[in-house]
Amino acid sequence: MGLFDFVKGIGKKNTAPAEPQAAPAAPAEPSAQEVANKLLGHVKSLGLPITGLSVSYNGASDLAAVKGQVQTQADREKIVLALGNIDHVAQVDDQLTVVSPEPESKFYTVKPGDNLSKISKEFYGDANQYNKIFEANRPLLKNADDIFPGQVLRIPA
């Protein structure tokens, strides 16, 4: 899919546990490796099927790069969004491969005052199709009201 831009500083705080590593005491500012380990832990916590997962992070450019293999385009997009909707990530370099390629979903950046019904009305012409968007963004969303301005969502065809 390539390189994706996100709005830095507005995403959710990354509270996932870091992947274990042998390291000296952490400095006040986390290293790029520590951030990469937390991002890796975050993606793994979603329970999406992926093999050969690796995540790197460049603090100078706030770029997260992800590699691995997934079965579906939907899983690929969810992983990219999971990384990009973290507060300190500005770009995601998607290097994932898909076993069964499918058409890509559209992405939508949430605006102030948006809700899933309003977004559904815009894309599908029917506010009652909001559950289609909610399901397309699980496990990233825990409930239909769990969206925030600047967040990027998958909008399936």
Automatic annotation (TrEMBL):
SMART domains: LysM
Top-level taxon of origin: Bacteria
SUPFAM superfamilies the record matches: LysM domain
PROSITE patterns for this protein: LYSM (PS51782)
Entry's localization field: Cytoplasm
Pfam families, sorted: BON (PF04972), LysM (PF01476)
NCBIfam families named among the record's database cross-references: PRK11198.1
Protein's name according to its UniProt entry: Potassium binding protein Kbp
The organism of origin for this protein: Acinetobacter tianfuensis
